[in-house]
Amino acid sequence: MADRRRTPHSAVLRACFVLLVACLPGHATASQPSRRAVADLADFVELVAGRFETPPDPAAAQDEDRRREGLRRVVVPVKAGFVGDAVFYLQESLAGDARRVLAQQLLLFALAPGGTTLIVETPVAFKEPLRWRDGDRKPELFRGILPQDVRPQAGCEVFWRRAGDGFEGATDASRCRGSRGDAVVRIERRYLLRATELRVRTVYYDEAGKSLAADPDVHYVRRSP
Prior knowledge:
- By secondary structure, the protein is mainly beta.
- Helix content is about 15%, strand content about 40%.
């Protein structure tokens, strides 16, 4: 992959990938994934982890509050055997105030069945988020996690595929539901992941499939560890 940036976590990520492939349904049988799928998954798990931040807005240079509203996204591999064999912890906070945590979840990755090259990301919510706060700095927390501590977010899986020197991902708006204000809406999120950046676009639809609104696009830049 062009311009891939190796990090100190690369060996850990590769180990996670090997374990993930070894545990895939049909591994070591005639239905095992293709070499291309295995290579895509290896590249993907290396790219998805890391520290990302939204770049500062030049117009906010003199505005302390606006500077603090930038976002920081951290994704690290963790050992949580009761949840899965290849698990990553995601935490998002305000870049200017790490105590303002906006999102926490586990991410499980696997190749889609049927010999395709799709990579399926299953987001998993915590039932007690505070218990797992700052898990990126305390990975030992997850050694004791149990299935009853989490709740997979069924329907909001992200389907990733290689796109040039990176990967594109999207949820299925016909299956992914959530809340926006007081309304239940369908949610489509689209992602573009490259060695240096992550872009996210979120669009909301009503039950009839009519577009209701879209969040401002979010552009993260990868930061060195």
